[in-house]
Amino acid sequence: MSTDDEEVRQVMIVFTHPDHRLHDPTEPHRFGGTMLPPAEIAERADRVLQGLDHAGGFDLRRPPQVERDSLLDVHTDRYLTFLESAHSRWRVATGSPEHAEAVAYIRPVPGTPLTRPTHIDAELGIYSNDVDPILSGTWQAAIAAASCAAAAAEAVVGGERSVYSLSRPPGHHAAPEVFGGYCFLNNTAIAASRLARAGMRTAILDVDTHHGNGTQTVFWERGDVLTASVHGDPTVHFPFFLGHADETGAGPGAGANHNYPLATGTAWSGYSEALGAALDTIRRHKAEALVVALGVDTHVAHGVLALEGNDFGRIGESVAGLDLPTVFVQEGGYEAGVLERDVPAVLTGFLDRS
Ligand SMILES: [Zn+2]
């Protein structure tokens, strides 16, 4: 909203839930030959909140608990049952204490007949694709994250113009039956499904530096939600196995999946070209609502792409150019200084142009 004399930025609703703290892993894992401490930790949400507080103009709210039906729009019933009970079953099977972290150590060999073993260690391997741990509070934290996203979508269905969901753990690497990449429930897909169920033509724009492989898998054959992802080339970057430009969907979803992989170190000039192409695709789709999978790990500090400084405000401004009701869902962003600075930059960039 603006007048000739003054400019008053709209206030943006933010959904955040304290239960995210129940998933706060501490055990190091081996990545590329080095033992590293976990990067997806509770402190991430604190840093975003600090940034929002500093920027001002955000209205923090706690969401109601998401309905199981909204989770079933995206995930299978058996996966939800597994996730909810995995840690307690693992403790019974292994005698581990409550604070221990359950991690898969074996997976089925591709192409071999898959009988379904019932031991929890086998199920951890069936339902995950990397070394993410399940803690005693992971389910409750994932539900809190999904609740934020569902409430944000509900608010947009109710007429809000833009809402931010401070979801953690993040979601865009979670597929209907797979957790991985720090993600357990696909918050972005849950928000988009809610908008689509309300009859709005819905698009997802994923600007995290890693391909939204889980989101692509959720909507691959659906066609009710258009997906567009701008990310580092999966030939050399996580999640490696999906995210190429020729992956366009199948069945009713044919032509509704769009990938824009970029070379390592791509800075704003190359990035903005791909972002512009993704936004044009969403325009041509005549979308009526948008979900932005908001990763800020495109920052140069993360070693994939090379955005910095005002580039994040420019992302927000570019998205505002679509002039659509928009749900922002938090995805990645880890390195020091990035979350607290670049998340508010995207959101205020959006509001300033809305
Ligand atoms: Zn990421």
Describe this structure in words.
With 354 residues, the protein is α/β, with parallel strands linked by helices. The chain has a single domain (12-64, 145-353), classed as Arginase, Chain A (3-Layer(aba) Sandwich). Helices cover 35% and strands 14% of the residues. It has ten helices and ten strands. The chain has helices at 43-55, 68-72, 77-94, 120-126, 138-157, 187-197, 213-219, 268-284, 311-320, 338-353, and strands spanning 12-15, 29-31, 34-36, 58-61, 162-165, 202-206, 225-232, 257-262, 289-294, 326-330. The chain has an eight-stranded parallel sheet with strand order 4-1-5-10-9-6-7-8, with helices on both faces. The chain has a two-stranded antiparallel ribbon with strand order 2-3. Helix 9 links the parallel strand 9 (289-294) and strand 10 (326-330). The longest helix has 20 residues, at 138-157. The chain starts with 11 loop residues before the first strand and ends with a helix. Mean pLDDT is 96; it is low at 1-5. Bound molecules: zinc ion. Residues 208-210, 295, 297, 331-332 line the site of zinc ion. Zinc ion (ZN) binds next to loops.
